[in-house]
């Protein structure tokens, strides 16, 4: 993670991130980017993430229920 990337993210916090407030927007941006990088590197790392290992041909057809 580069200083430029962190600085840019800190300058462009989303409205909900600004509303949450932070005494240190740079540290907030660094934490946001670290979590984002982790999710990108390991999609299963996100909280409450469930990845199905099915192919599209194994999925239920429209209107079909699964049990």
What is the CA-atom radius of gyration, in angstroms?
18 Å
Helical coverage, percent range = 40-55%
> Termini distance?
44 Å
Number of strands: 0
Oligomer: single chain
Largest sheet: none
Globular, elongated, flat, extended or rod-shaped: what is the shape?
elongated
Q: Can you tell me the residue ranges where pLDDT is under 50 for at least 5 consecutive residues?
A: none
Share of β-strand residues: under 5%
Structural class label? mainly alpha
Number of helical elements? 3
The SSE string, one letter per element, is HHH
Residue-averaged pLDDT, rounded? 78
Region (Disordered): 32-67
Describe the structure in your own words.
This protein is mainly α and 67 residues long. It has a domain at 3-46. The chain is 48% helix and 0% strand. The chain is built from three helices and no strands. Helix 1 (3-11) crosses helix 3 (25-41). The radius of gyration is 18 Å and the shape is elongated. The relative contact order is 0.12.
Annotate the secondary structure layout:
Layout: H1 3-11, H2 15-20, H3 25-41
Helix pairs in contact: 1-3
Region (Disordered): 32-67
Summarize the structure.
With about 70 residues, the chain is mainly α. The longest helix has 17 residues.
